[in-house]
Amino acid sequence: IIESAGTNGYHVGEAPHRLSQKVAKLNGVDICSQKASQFTTKDFQDYDIIYAMADEVITEMKWIAGKHYDPSKVKLLMDEIYPGKNMDVPDPWYGPEPGYHDVYKMIEQACAEIVRKYQ
Question: Domain spanning 18-118: which superfamily?
Answer without folding.
Answer: Response regulator (3.40.50.2300)
